[in-house]
Design goal:
The two termini are 27 Å apart. The chain is 75% helix and 0% strand. Helix 1 packs across helix 2. The chain is mostly helical. It has a domain of 62 residues: Helix Hairpins, CATH 1.10.287.10.
Length: 89
Protein backbone atom coordinates (compact mmCIF):
# COMPACT_ATOMS: atom_id res chain seq x y z
CA UNK A 1 0.00 0.00 0.00
CA UNK A 2 2.10 2.88 -1.22
CA UNK A 3 1.49 6.40 -0.01
CA UNK A 4 0.13 8.96 -2.40
CA UNK A 5 2.65 11.60 -3.35
CA UNK A 6 0.60 14.37 -1.75
CA UNK A 7 0.41 12.49 1.58
CA UNK A 8 4.11 11.80 1.42
CA UNK A 9 4.95 15.46 0.73
CA UNK A 10 2.85 16.70 3.65
CA UNK A 11 4.42 14.20 6.04
CA UNK A 12 7.92 15.10 4.85
CA UNK A 13 7.20 18.82 5.18
CA UNK A 14 5.86 18.34 8.71
CA UNK A 15 8.73 16.22 10.04
CA UNK A 16 11.78 17.49 8.12
CA UNK A 17 14.62 18.85 10.23
CA UNK A 18 15.75 21.39 7.62
CA UNK A 19 14.61 22.53 4.19
CA UNK A 20 14.99 19.80 1.58
CA UNK A 21 15.32 17.03 4.15
CA UNK A 22 13.73 13.79 2.95
CA UNK A 23 15.84 11.06 4.51
CA UNK A 24 16.45 11.93 8.14
CA UNK A 25 15.40 9.32 10.70
CA UNK A 26 12.56 11.58 11.84
CA UNK A 27 11.05 11.67 8.34
CA UNK A 28 11.56 7.93 7.86
CA UNK A 29 9.88 7.12 11.19
CA UNK A 30 6.94 9.37 10.34
CA UNK A 31 6.48 7.80 6.89
CA UNK A 32 6.72 4.29 8.31
CA UNK A 33 4.23 5.15 11.05
CA UNK A 34 1.72 6.38 8.49
CA UNK A 35 2.14 3.23 6.38
CA UNK A 36 1.84 1.03 9.49
CA UNK A 37 -1.41 2.72 10.47
CA UNK A 38 -2.88 2.22 7.00
CA UNK A 39 -1.79 -1.41 6.87
CA UNK A 40 -3.19 -2.07 10.34
CA UNK A 41 -6.60 -0.85 9.16
CA UNK A 42 -6.33 -3.16 6.14
CA UNK A 43 -5.53 -6.13 8.35
CA UNK A 44 -8.55 -5.45 10.55
CA UNK A 45 -10.73 -6.13 7.52
CA UNK A 46 -8.60 -8.90 6.01
CA UNK A 47 -7.42 -10.96 8.97
CA UNK A 48 -6.02 -13.82 6.89
CA UNK A 49 -3.74 -11.69 4.72
CA UNK A 50 -0.48 -13.17 5.96
CA UNK A 51 1.71 -11.61 3.28
CA UNK A 52 0.68 -8.11 4.32
CA UNK A 53 1.10 -9.05 7.97
CA UNK A 54 4.70 -10.06 7.28
CA UNK A 55 5.32 -6.71 5.60
CA UNK A 56 3.75 -4.94 8.56
CA UNK A 57 6.06 -6.72 10.98
CA UNK A 58 9.11 -5.79 8.91
CA UNK A 59 8.02 -2.13 8.84
CA UNK A 60 7.56 -2.14 12.61
CA UNK A 61 11.02 -3.64 13.06
CA UNK A 62 12.58 -1.06 10.73
CA UNK A 63 10.89 1.79 12.63
CA UNK A 64 12.17 0.35 15.90
CA UNK A 65 15.73 0.17 14.53
CA UNK A 66 15.54 3.80 13.40
CA UNK A 67 14.34 4.91 16.83
CA UNK A 68 17.09 2.87 18.51
CA UNK A 69 19.65 4.57 16.25
CA UNK A 70 18.30 7.97 17.25
CA UNK A 71 18.53 7.00 20.92
CA UNK A 72 22.23 6.27 20.46
CA UNK A 73 22.87 9.51 18.58
CA UNK A 74 20.57 11.92 20.40
CA UNK A 75 18.12 10.77 23.06
CA UNK A 76 16.17 14.03 22.94
CA UNK A 77 15.46 13.69 19.20
CA UNK A 78 14.38 10.10 19.76
CA UNK A 79 11.87 10.89 22.47
CA UNK A 80 10.62 13.93 20.54
CA UNK A 81 9.86 11.96 17.35
CA UNK A 82 8.29 9.09 19.32
CA UNK A 83 6.00 11.56 21.04
CA UNK A 84 5.10 13.37 17.79
CA UNK A 85 4.06 10.20 15.96
CA UNK A 86 2.24 8.81 18.99
CA UNK A 87 4.55 6.02 20.15
CA UNK A 88 5.26 5.02 23.71
CA UNK A 89 8.55 6.38 24.91
Amino acid sequence: MPLSSSDKKTIIKEFQTQAGDTGSPEVQVALLTHRIEKLTEHLKLHAHDNHSRRGLLSMIAKRRRLINFLEKVDRERSSKIAQRVGLKD
